[in-house]
Amino acid sequence: MSLHDARELRAERAKLVKQAQADVDANPQGFNAEEQERWDKRMSDIDSIEQKYQAIEARYAAKAELADKIAQDQEARDDRKEFGAKREDAEEVRHNLSQAFRSWARGEMSNAEFRAIEGQTKGTAAQGGNTVPADFLAEVQTHLKSYGGVREVARVIATANGQNLPIPTSDDTGNTAKLVSEATAPSTTTRVPFGQVTMEAARYQSGPIKVSMELLQDSAIDIESYISEAMGVRFGRITNQHYTTRSSTEAAGPHGFIGESSGAVVVANNALTYENVVDLIHSVDPAYRTPNAAWMTNDAGFAELRKLRGSTAAASDRLIWQPSLVPCTPDTLLGYRVVLNQDVPLEGTTGNKWLWFGNWERGYAIRDVVGMTMRRLDERYAEEGNVALIGYMRTDGRAILPSTTAARRPFRCILHSS
Fold first, then answer.
1. Cα–Cα distance measured from residue 71 to residue 236, given in angstroms and rounded to the nearest whole number
2. Which of 84, 215, 358, 384 is the most buried (most CB within 10 A)?
3. Cβ atoms of 166 and 396 closer than 8 Å
4. What does pLDDT average to over the chain?
5. How many CA atoms lie within 13 A of 76 on its CB side?
6. Using an 8 Å Cβ cutoff, are 133 and 66 in contact?
7. Segment 121-126 long-range contacts (CB within 8 Å, at least 24 positions apart)
8. Which residue has the higher pLDDT, 304 or 264?
């Protein structure tokens, strides 16, 4: 399916949204059982259409990202070649490595043979496993984003090795210029305060993904897509959970952002209002309320936000959630995109921080070690007629908070009180 199909799906979804708005306008005091059932059905249809066009747009985005990477790899290879040497064709290299990967996954090629091909096309393979080709990695990255909201909006830093990576932090919002007389040297020097967060490279394992011999031997099956989706989902779920909720007291591995926020906007009696949402936006320093800022909540929280209008008193007020008709452009809530993160706590429990807003690129960083490796287990499940594949990736995630003052942090949240 093409981007044209994505546009048509967005237009179809927009019609349903208008119908939902009409339902809200016609029932300012709330829905009865029948009206609620119709609303829920319409929201389900809206979500179903959204999943379809997002899948189309994600594939096109992954292809564009892959094309850029191939071009960069080609340029790097050309720079390394001696003058007058034959120029490699990037598309041919990509095709050859992908073909070799499929043969290796199906057991038609030994580990040593695959490593030899890797060495010819991409440099030395990582020790202890086989490096996956670029297009396979692009598929995994797509699924990582699909099953984790943090990676969609955080700053992602890719490094060639797993050495500790210091990330500087800085908050200059408390400093000001000084008024001085002409030709008078300043009496004091105000320095920009710098801190530092050290990012590591924790190792994650996908666990054995068992594939039947029949499936491997069927040449009609796109084995790359099958395996990349399985690995992307597994890595995406666990790393997003850790980026979101893992305690900052853990000695190694990602730290979640949930424990890194103070001074939350408190909502009493679990009664979220339009005014609460506006208060949350303005609790974040204007320096971080740039177009890159975004909301983050779970799907149940998003359902509540989609029902909010500009005022609870006027039936004519519009829904504050606005769908987008432009491909690759997200829906917005009061002008900012909404990122779904199923690891964010649910609304309705005292003390839960369930709705977040801020500039995640400035407030949270993910560090990935470039590439991932795989191993094929031929004997472990042989009596079942299966082969197992295990993938490894190295990553870390930390909040990059420039200030201990709540009002100067890049993201804030809503907390429900009893």
1. 27
2. 358
3. no
4. 77
5. 9
6. no
7. 121/93, 121/96, 121/97, 122/73, 122/97, 125/373, 126/371, 126/373
8. 304
Instruction: Summarize pLDDT for 117-126 with one digit per residue, the tens.
Output: 554 444 334 4
Single pTM value for the model? 0.73
* Three-state DSSP state, 322: strand
Q: Beta-carbon neighbour count of residue 321 at 10 Å?
A: 19
Buried-exposed string 255-275: b where 16+ CB fall within 10 A, e elsewhere: bbbbebbeebbebeeeebeee
Tell me the one-letter amino acid at 254: P
Contacts of 61 (CB under 8 A, 6+ apart): 142, 328
Instruction: Report how far apart, in Å, the C-alpha atoms of 169 and of each of 22, 23, 367, 400 are.
Output: 47, 48, 15, 6
β-strand pairing of 332-333 with 321-322: antiparallel
How far apart CA 35 and CA 24 sit, in angstroms, is 10
Q: Which residues contact 258 (CB under 8 A, 6 or more apart)?
A: 244, 245, 344, 345, 353
Order of all β-strands in the sheet with 321-322: 265-267, 411-416, 353-358, 294-297, 336-340, 332-333, 321-322
| Two tokens, residue 393 | 């990736």
